[in-house]
């Protein structure tokens, strides 16, 4: 008895030592730059770790830690620790183009972790595939987007928004609404009606889709599982998976309904392709749903915010709109063009630059060792095109943190600057895999803001959480989405 006790007593320090050594080994492995990447300039890990632990959002982390480090050293490529992974960030526009143009050397990376997001999105779609399969998806989706831009639908959705901002029963002309939420509902209805061929009616009703989608995205972004995605395999979250599967089933039902009740939408067009399997169609519908509404909603929140805090810019944009479209005519493709509304277009471009909806792309990988700029990039490295950093480069933009739409118009007078700014404005990325819906998204923004400018003036409420600068929500998926953005709209009299 006493002997057993002595053995156990002696064993305690031994096991503690083992546990401490194992822990030390894991911590060392977690934070030490792997040998094959050690030649790359590495952003200090400790500040990044503190940044993650303190809940800093991606755009702040890029501005505070990544850009200053790269700028001080004149580097266009830096190595960044990102929650246990090592990512090579490309901040130099020319190198980013070099990477984006070459789909063979730099294919999309197959996500190495067990994040539920990948289960939700699925693997057989335009976003996640490579090679010939990607070409098949891409061709179909690009053809679908080239059909027509549904300006009339954007306009009628804007009119729906008016009834929510300023309910007909209301006796006052001034209303404060949560614009970031309304923008999400507008973007969802836009993608629903014209791309998916389904009326979510998210603007006017409590959409079950929106509720379920937001719930699933919230669950997927659980910080513990983001830091350690392998936990999904050890402790699978049954309830979350069930909720996600039920949402995916809703998408499947949409597809079934579309087969029996075709419409004048892109999904109907895509369903006619005999080469697309049901799984491929399902995975694409989820991608179009996700890619198509959060991004646009983020852009619309940002644009309305900057016009609210710069009344003189809002007024100049309104004057242009009234001059070109008059007070009531519905917008058309021609009247919304960049040539027709250059100032408004500059405002849209500037807002997509300053608070880029997707701060960086899905990682690419190297299939073999390559030279990029002055560095050797080994095989199987993860590379990210850091769009937000390119949009905030002092050298290119001079005053990157200032909202100044006129920069795009000034540039038009000086051909050399034009090329630099044109090439460095990349909210939709660049190369063959850039956003296939960029025209759709740009017209969606222009149509809504034109309608709003004629109907209302707007300001930021006194007690806004954004009064000292626009704040984005935490997003594990590199989305830059302002949150709790209240805006006070006042109906115009003339
Ligand atoms: C302001 C709005 C938008 C922005 C800023 C934006 C930005 C981007 C960016 C940066 C990419 C490249 C991602 C990567 O390579 O990892 C991308 C790809 C994509 N976007 Fe958009 N997007 C917007 C709106 C939309 C809309 C409205 C749709 C569809 C309804 C859409 C569908 C897609 C798809 C399907 C891809 C994948 C293309 C491929 O991999 O070949 N996007 N978008």
Automatic annotation (TrEMBL):
Is the keyword Iron in the record? yes
Q: Where are the transmembrane segments?
A: 12-31
Q: Which SUPFAM superfamilies match?
A: Cytochrome P450
Q: What domain of life does the UniProt record list for this protein's source?
A: Eukaryota
Q: Which GO terms describe its molecular function?
A: heme binding; iron ion binding; monooxygenase activity; oxidoreductase activity, acting on paired donors, with incorporation or reduction of molecular oxygen
Pfam families cross-referenced by the UniProt entry: p450
Cofactor(s) of this protein: heme
- One term under GO cellular component: membrane
How is this protein named in the record? Cytochrome P450
User: What organism does this protein naturally occur in?
Assistant: Serpula lacrymans var. lacrymans (strain S7.3)
